[in-house]
Amino acid sequence: MRYNIFKTAFLLTIGLLVTKQIVAQEVLSLQVCKEKALEHNQTVKSAVSDFKSSEASLKLSKRAMLPTFDLTSNYTYLSDPNQMVIPGYELPTINGQPSGVYSPGSITDLAYTNSYSANLGMSLPIYMGGKLQHVKTLSKLGVQLADDNLDRTKSDLFLDIETKYWGLVSLQEQKMVIEKSIELLTDVLKEVNNRYKTGIVTKNELLKTKVELNNAKLSLIELNDNIELSKMSLNQSIGEEIMSTLQIQDSIIIIPNHLSDISFDEKQLLGRSEVKMLNTQLEMSKTQKKLVSADYLPQLVSFANYVSQNPDHYGKQKNDFTFNAGVSLSIPVFHWGEKKLKKHIEQRNIEKAEYELDQSTELMTLEIHQAIFKLKESLIKLDFTETSLEQANENLKLERNRLKQGVSTTRELLNAQLQWQQSHANFINAKTKVKTSIAKYYKSIGQLNS
Questions:
Q1: Tag placement on the chain: N or C end, fewer CB within 10 Å?
Q2: In this structure, is residue 118 part of a structural domain?
Q3: pLDDT tens digits for range 114-167
Q4: Residue 10: inside a domain, yes or no?
Q5: How far is CA 133 from its chain centroid?
Q6: Is the pLDDT score of 424 beyond 80?
Q7: What is the DSSP annotation of 94-116?
Q8: What's residue 398's pLDDT?
Q9: 292 part of a folded domain
Q10: pTM
């Protein structure tokens, strides 16, 4: 009695733990998978780091226009400073005769045993030929470039997640079809077995039915393996443990109805991160050329210093604090054509950026057209497979009824069942193709960032 009570309590505890684990398991939607992938993906993290770095560079370029303050100091100790020995001598008289008065010799230090200096200086650029403003413009463009690169990285990641997610949904939907096929074949096998016992059909037909059922069971085993591998791949992409249990929200692929209205518009190119990046790089090349010109313009800088030193060459007293201020003007005069050559190099960089922009725009226009064609093609194939599926369903019903009426053979029913299973597989694959084509289309127009 006590053993039964203990056994019952143990089983209840295990049941509660399992139930708690099942309840706690998160069901992941496509959007949640994307959010998890963003948190985990190292390439996205790297792009975020580049963006934050470019923001810091922009702040630095703005602060370069502000005055800077620097404190410098030094101290020197000489244990044996150089000395000058002055010998003693007899003081002369007016007529040059000996006076009998003797001046003693002396020793004078030529250097200080302890010398130090402290300087608090301020420097403020007044005019740098527009160089600081151009650097600020380059930093702003750098922030924009990093932001567009981050969007492009996210878009690539989201396309990968959508492909894996809908691929997993497709496999799970095909699993339901095969399970239904096994159920149908099991019923057929019972029917054929009964007919075999009564002598209506031969053993060969019974064996054919068993082979088809075994093939379906083998397909289910292979499909289960593919489902597990697909879950592992998705787990890796969203930052979960490779072998952790994964449950997704969708089980059947549903296709929206507004896809046939999609068409090409040149404005769609403006949404592409790649186009934005190439335009930004072109602007950066133009600004870089202006920066070269600024390097060869006059530069005016003001400064002020508050100084204390020993020995003090400025103050009247040994420990006086002295102040000085002024401006510094630098004018480039002759550099052997350096400015012209540098501007020539930057002009070539501008032309190169323009060529890359033109070529990439053409290729991306082609990519958008291809994405639209592939999407419309997948929609047409979906209609065909849906029609074939309806026909396969009707044909299977017909053959099952004919077999029961004794006017059809087992082989014809098995062929109808195989056609039904293949039609379902084609229909599911067509739906998956539509889903991935939708994702590729939105990526091609730069709208796959959420």
A1: N
A2: no
A3: 778 889 999 999 999 999 999 999 999 999 999 999 999 999 999 999 999 999
A4: no
A5: 30
A6: yes
A7: TTS-EEEEEEPPEEEESS-SEEE
A8: 92
A9: yes
A10: 0.82
